[in-house]
């Protein structure tokens, strides 16, 4: 990561149709993970989202964190 990309979104897909998105911070803060599963029969945890829901959530997290870094949205 460089100063140009202080926040990165990474997709992890360990098995088909299930995985996580990671919001990674260049400043050393712990990453934020959002888990997803597109198979309803495996989606037993209440915090497990569909792929599209998880993607929207990590994009919102990244946008909020970028706004904090740039001073926008305050």
Can you describe this structure?
The protein has 74 residues and is α+β, with helices and mostly antiparallel strands. The chain has one domain. The chain has one helix and three strands. Strands 1-2-3 form a three-stranded antiparallel β-sheet, covered by helices on one side.
Keywords:
1 helix; 74 residues; 3 strands; alpha+beta; three-stranded antiparallel sheet
TL;DR?
The protein is an alpha+beta fold. It has one helix spanning 51-70, and strands spanning 7-15, 18-25, 32-37. It has a three-stranded antiparallel sheet, covered by helices on one side.
Question: How would the blueprint of this fold be written?
Answer:
Blueprint: E1 7-15, E2 18-25, E3 32-37, H1 51-70
Antiparallel strand pairs: 1-2, 2-3
> Helix/strand-derived class?
alpha+beta
Number of strands: 3
Mean pLDDT score, rounded?
Answer: 87
> Biggest sheet, strands in spatial order?
1-2-3
Q: Give the CA-CA distance, first to last residue.
A: 25 Å
User: In the residues, how many domains can be counted?
Assistant: 1
Return Rg in Å: 14 Å
The major beta sheet can be summarized as: 3 strands, antiparallel
Regions with little confidence, pLDDT below 50 for 5+ residues: none
Percent helix, as a range, is: 25-40%
Instruction: Tell me what portion of residues adopts beta-strand conformation.
Output: 25-35%
């Amino acid at each position: 990561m460089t100063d140009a990309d202080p926040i990165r979104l990474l997709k992890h897909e360990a098995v088909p149709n299930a995985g996580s998105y990671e919001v990674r911070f260049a400043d050393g803060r712990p990453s934020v993970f959002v888990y997803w599963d597109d198979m309803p029969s495996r989606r037993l945890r209440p915090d497990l989202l569909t792929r599209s829901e998880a993607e929207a959530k990590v994009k919102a997290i990244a946008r909020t964190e970028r706004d904090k870094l740039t001073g926008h949205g305050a």
